[in-house]
Structures are given as structure tokens and as C-alpha cells.
């Protein structure tokens, strides 16, 4: 973690991308609720070079943890410096080419053979199965590996997280890719220590692998009570094998220790074991679930933890490395100081309940959203994402009550817009799936003004935002507000390439204003754009056909109009719009004046 003036608080957003078992892309494993995108959204490079990461980098460079970084903010606030999560990235090299990340962090799957008490169904397939939940479907298919290949070619390091990496085909596919390409870049693997077979040995022999073995105890009964499903004898033996292999090859092996109520008394023994093995120590203070966390104990109990450790200090540190001494001292200071009164669970409680509030708003459950926010704001009154959600809730409630034209709605909308401008980080954190994931459901609930306020927070280049604007063009057209529809269409054109739908909307506006050749050109452009698509949407095909029929009618091209209309009717003679067109066709076929047919 950067700790000198002028340096960023964390190098993660400047060096890496993190991929989780659902296919979501984030900065790191601690900030997964601030989602940058999904592996199936399209171009992964657009996420690396996009505004989401740029905003996070800017905030950290200014010396503040943005929304999404609550875990690291809490650790720093409560004195955990030596094992602060951001320390993980201090040694990461900055990209040689800024167009590509220098490090890739993969949690490909939740496939795991253990059911650790501090874990969740998202990270353990065993827990998922025990709770009767369906297995996660992997998004990491051939298409993903084709897309990630240039990233791997530019990477200077790779991390593999769990589930259990040494049980996951995707991990071995990536490792085999590195071996085949002769790319001997550092590979960091966090393993539960249960797997040490021929495939693992091959990887260790071909790549500079640094292994972190998760070992949440020293006594067999403690290990098996926490890491449910593990055989403590085998796990300890494998930890020794990993450490011995690292020493032979001059590499680093680390013992990861999830510190919690069940094992805090064994922390001194863990340090002594690490010294025996020549391994490093990394402490992960558990904050969730609450019943396992030291931070939910009464204050006096936490101080007793610190007193017990202090009594062991001399023996623990007698043969410790400098790094181990820093970790021990930082942890002791953490429990003797501010952490003695800390409630670490707020770092999970706030973003999760805020996310739940946004989901309830999008579903129209305003009472449920209010309950979620009432639980968040008293505990975390400074939570900017929660305030964004509160403003949105006020706006949606007023619109549902029919108060769109009131001063109250105007004030609520203005306050929401102010937050969006002044706190873009808060908006990004409040809508981790993107603002359009909330705007579209509000639109479907006919809360169109609130949807508009939310949608305006989207980046202009967002394809979903552009599509939403085009839908509003269509609604303006239906209300015969042609000038307004044309103005909004021009806004969409300035924000990016013109899609088939853009040309369709343009064609109908030209038809409405009797601009025949402009309409004909728009239809032709739309058809050309559709022809370039592998699977054009049927409604766009039909829409452009209808627009072409009207162009022929306006131009008095009766025969051409007849051909197009018959083609439309053959496609779906029972469709209401087709029947209306049939009446228009009858007028054309009967040699009625084209202008009369259009009026009819």
C-alpha cells in the first residue's frame, strides 16, 4: 500500500483486472460489488481503458478510497497496515504498455472440495450443493479464452484464486497456455492445500509459481472444524511439500490465516510453523459471517485477545523475519487500538443493503427499499451510494404518486442530478451493474421521468443508453412531437455510430415531414447496416420494410409499394399492423391517389 505523499493508495486499478466465478470483472477480489462489466459484454479492453477504472484511479491518486473500496478503507482506519489488502499490489510492476494490464487475477470458478465456515456458495461449490442451490454455469468458454489471449501475452504476472484453483479445468487451461507459449511470468496461486498431484507438480516445475496455502489453524481439530471436509494430516503434509518445493527453487511460499473466533489462540503457533517452514505469513481478519468474526465480540473480549498475544510476543518473534515482525506488530496494534471498538461488518452490510435497495426500487417495491435504506444510513451516514439510492427512492415515489409536475419532484430530481455530477464514484458504486440496469425496469414500470434521470448518469457511449434514447425518440414520434424527436436523434448521432434502429427512426421522421429522398436514403442506410449483422432483429427488418412502403407511396411508386406491402402481409397476415397495411395496400392496388392512400 502506497504510504508516501503523492502516491496512489493502491496500485490495483493501475495494474490489473479481476475476474470472478460469475464472469463479473472488477478491480480486485475485495471490490467485486463495484462491477466494471461482464466477460460477455463485449470488448474487455474497453473496461481496462474505460471511465469506470479511470474514476477509481483518480480517487486513489487523490488519497481517498472511492466507493467499492470499503474493505481497504476500514483496514487502514483501524490500524491494519502490515497486512493491509492493498499491500498485495505494492510489488506489482506498472504496465509496460498502458493499453494493457500488467497483471490478471482469476477466480474462474467456485469449484472447491471444502465447506469452510467463513466461506459462501459463491466461492464454494460444496457449500452451494449442501444448500440445495444450482451449480454456477461457467462463463469462461472458448470465446473468453480467445479474447483473453492478447491480455495474457502482455501480462507480467497472473493470480489464481478460489474456489480451489488446482481443481478447476479453467486454471489448468490458462497454465498450459503459459507453458506452451514459454511465458515464465510469476504465477500466484492461493490453494486450500488439499491438492498436490502430478499436474500440480508439472506446473510447479515449468512456471515460477508462488503458492499461498490457506491454513486456518495448527491443531488438527481446529483445522477440520474450520475447513470442513479437509483431512488435517494431509493438509499439513501438503503445506510442508509446497514450502519445501519453494525453498528448493528459491521461491516464496506463504501461509494464509483467516483470523476468527475459532482460531485466534493458535495465531502464535502459526507464526512458529511459518518460521519452521521458511514461509511467509498473511493474516486475513474475518469480518463475515458475523458469528465467526472477532470484531463482533464484546470490546473487553477483544482486548483480552490482544493481551494474550502480547504475552506470547517474545517467543513468537525470537526467530521471526522482519516481514513477520511487522505483521505481528501491526495486528497487535490493531486489536489494542481502534479496532477494539470497531464493527467490521459494516463494510459488508452497507453496500449489500444499498444494492438490495436499488433492486427493490427497480422492482417497484418502494416500501422494501425504504426499509433497506433505513437500516443502512444510521450505521453509515456518510455512505454516498446509500444517499444516491435515497434520492432515487424519493423521486420514484413522487412519480408513482402522480407528482411529476410538482416542485417536490423537481427538487428531488435536481438533488439526484447534483449527486450524479459531484459524486460519479458514488453513482458507479450505487449501480454496480450499470445505471441502465435500473433505468430499463423503471421505464417498464412507466416511471419514465425517474428512468430518464437515472439514464442520464450513463456514459454516452453505453450501447444500452443509446438504445434507451432511441426508444424515447420513438415515443416522441408516436406523440407527433417531430421536432423534439429529430433533436434527440441528433444527440444520439453525436454519441457514436448510427445503428439500424437509428436509421429506422430517422426514416420515419423524414416520412412524417414528407421528405421523400431523405427517407429513402435513411431506409437504404438502415438496410445496409442490418445486412452487416449476423442475426438482425426481426422487428427492425419489418420496420424498415414498412418505412420503405411509405416512401414508395409518397413518391407515387405504386407498383414498388405493392411489392413491399404484399411481402409484409405474406410474413404475418394476422398482425394488427399488417392488417392496417392491407387497407393501405388495397387503396394503392385500386389505383387510389397515393396521397389519399397515405391519409387513409
Structural class: alpha/beta
Number of helices: 28
- Termini separation: 73 Å
- Trace the largest sheet across and list its strands: 3-2-1-4-5-6-7-8-9
Gyration radius over CA: 30 Å
- Binned strand content: 5-15%
Instruction: Please give the number of β-strands.
Output: 9
What portion of residues is helical?
55-70%
> What would the principal axes of the Cα set say about the shape?
elongated
Q: Largest sheet, if any?
A: 9 strands, mixed
Average pLDDT, rounded to a whole number, is 85
Overview of the molecule:
The chain is an alpha/beta fold and 600 residues long. The protein has 28 helices and 9 strands. It has helices spanning 12-15, 44-48, 51-61, 70-77, 125-130, 142-154, 169-181, 198-206, 220-226, 232-249, 267-277, 299-317, 322-336, 346-363, 366-376, 384-400, 407-422, 424-430, 436-444, 448-455, 463-478, 482-494, 500-512, 516-531, 538-554, 558-571, 576-589, 594-599; strands at residues 16-19, 24-26, 37-38, 103-106, 157-160, 187-191, 209-214, 253-259, 280-285. The chain has a 9-stranded mixed β-sheet with strand order 3-2-1-4-5-6-7-8-9. Residues 1-6 have low confidence and may be disordered.
